[in-house]
Amino acid sequence: MDDPVYAPAVELVHVSKTKPVLLGDSVTQLQVIVDVSFSVPKGEILALVGPSGSGKSTLLRMMNRLEDPSSGQISLFGTDISSLDVRELRRRVGMVFQTPALIAGTVADNVSYGPRLRGEDCDPGECLDLVQLERDLLHRPATALSVGQQQRMCIARALANRPEVLLLDEPTSALDRTAANTVLDLVCRLNREMGLTVIMVTHLMEHARAVGTRTMLLVRGAKVEEGPANAFFASPATEVGRRFLQGELSNER
Amino acid sequence: MNASAYIHISLIDLLIALLFVGVTALISYWQHLGLERDIAIGTVRAFVQLLTVGFVLQRLFDASRWYWVVLALAIMTTVAGYNAVRRQAGAKQGLFAMTTASIATGGAITLILVIGVVLRVRPWYQPQYVIPIAGMVIGNSMNGAALVVNRFHSELTLRRSEIEASLALGAPAREAAAGALRESLRAAMMPTVNSMMTVGLVQLPGMMTGQIISGASPLDAVRYQVVVMLMIAAATAVTAMTAAFGALRVFFTPAQQLSPRLELGRHWDAYTAEAKR
Fold this sequence. Notes:
The complex is a heterodimer of chains A (253) and B (277).
Chain A: E1 10-23, E2 26-40, E3 45-49, H1 56-63, E4 71-76, E5 79-80, H2 86-92, E6 93-96, H3 107-111, H4 113-117, H5 124-130, H6 147-159, E7 165-169, H7 177-194, E8 197-201, H8 205-211, E9 214-219, E10 222-228, H9 229-234, H10 239-245
Parallel strand pairs in A: 3-8, 3-9, 6-7, 7-8
Antiparallel strand pairs in A: 1-2, 1-4, 4-5, 9-10
Chain B: H1 11-30, H2 36-63, H3 66-86, H4 95-118, H5 127-158, H6 160-168, H7 173-176, H8 178-198, H9 206-213, H10 218-251, H11 261-264, H12 267-276
Helix pairs in contact in B: 1-2, 3-4, 3-5, 4-5, 4-10, 5-8, 5-10, 8-10, 9-10
């Protein structure tokens, strides 16, 4: 398993997370992730689906250590991520959020942010090419872009770090249909052409179906089922999976 | 300075001054402000606190021992550190030690320079100089530390998504929070800078007023005031800077993550107390 050639890009082993959550006026310890294990081979797109509040985002945020698990282990190409330098880990595992989070300045400032931190050179124009944004946008303030363009800029910004894995946290939910489809196509193309491993959280089944080669269903913090996307959407293996696809599990905790 | 030149206030004079409280209370009653109780408590507290301090200071001045002076400075710093945290809206845990240390740092550096280099007080611990000057330095440092902590907390809450995006790109906390740090430092230093702009035009500073009443020439008092203003600016800047780096440690984890205390707000204290048990 330690051989980086054969080790999966991302692997979770018995990962659980309990965190303090504010309910009303008191703090309660809530187990938001319950003993989750799975692995994502290099070059795959995993769609992480589940009702809102099921822990999908928390799971994703633990993969680049914006949060840490309470127990269990997460590995990147066979190496425990807690043993890696956290900044290098985050360079290798890029992340794009639900709403485009802009860093002050121009599009170029945003795109070259990561490499500049490490004193490396970066051609922001090249990164914009990857996400099919016009190079004329480079010197515009990031706030002048449409939300769809901003989200693509955020992907370009993550790509400037030359990541091995890309985490997408509901990347389309702030976008209209056209912009969302552009982003989904883009993700598929990056995966196909660059061999980028992608893990995408979404609550929209059509989006999961559009990109995912594999699908994993998370309900109340626990893994319910996982498998090839085709099989999952055609006939889920579990009763919970079937009810979820019929929309009976929406928005429960 | 001519010590006998100014008018002493007798106890009877003090009682006459209570008439002012009567006016204040009357306005509150008349306008239904509901402040009569607070005015009464405030008056009694002001009397008791100031008389106690006057008594303690008198003993301190009479004894004139370096260790009593140092003890007084330590108490002033600790109370200031506590007060700087008391005004913080969110969780307070871990902040008290930090603000106290920042105030001590900013205070010590400026106090040593003023006492040792500018005024050249001999012996250095003469309470007549050390205590009032330290009072001004520590008081202003306290406000600086409080402003940094408060502003940093609200900036982090406000800029959360931008900060997490930077962290996710591999930025260290200090870089991801650079904007928030800058705003906090500005907020802490603005009052001092503003008061340097308007000093003498709008109001005469308390110390200068005191010196003039007790018989010092205005020109002499003004020199003291200039030293004091510059000293306060430096103390505030050093304290704010130290507090900002302290706040960075409190609000971010060693793994460059935003601390969960931001989400839990004031509930964080109860939560950590619970977790320890």
